[in-house]
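User: I'll paste a sequence; please echo it back and then give the predicted structure.

Assistant: Echoing your sequence first, then the prediction.
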Amino acid sequence: MNTFANLYFKIPRRLRFSIIFAFLIVAAYLIFYLLAANSKTKEVPNEFLKARQEASLIAQDIISFSNQTANNISKISELDKEAKYEDALNLITKEIEYNRQARERAISLSAQLEKMTKNISGIEPPEAAQIALQAVGSETTLISRLISYNDYLVQFLEILRQKFSKDKNTNGRIAELVGKINEESKTINNLDKNFNQLMAEFDKFR
């Protein structure tokens, strides 16, 4: 220890101050580097942001179609009770067109989710990327459930068309399909809510 002290004090004072100053600069740099390395500053590719915005808008359209269908099914049921079969058939025709539009929007949503997935690797920090992956997974599941929903709806509308056109006894099958359609509709809404909640959590990263 004395040897080190002797060597230290043999160094000119100006040089000693320079050494201490240099040491402090190096220490400050190391601290800054470590803090920066461990920071949670978010980095998100522009392509991901654009695709996310488009996906959100498309999902809103799909939810709107789903809610509109639920209302129309109720109206068709009322028209059935009132024996207004021609009005019911006209509403079924409109509903078939809405269903076609919903399928087209699902294809568009799938394309945007693909873009989001391809750009997740460029998101920092990893925690934010993980949340983004979960959100994309939720909307991907939504598309899968929408396919089932549309399938049940097509069957439902065809059976109603048969009933109103040919007076076939299809009440049991109608009730079954209405139950399945309502179940899928609720699931689709919940999956989209989950996507939005995850994206809100994703946005908390700065």
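Residues 109 and 206 are 27 Å apart (CA to CA). The radius of gyration is 31 Å.
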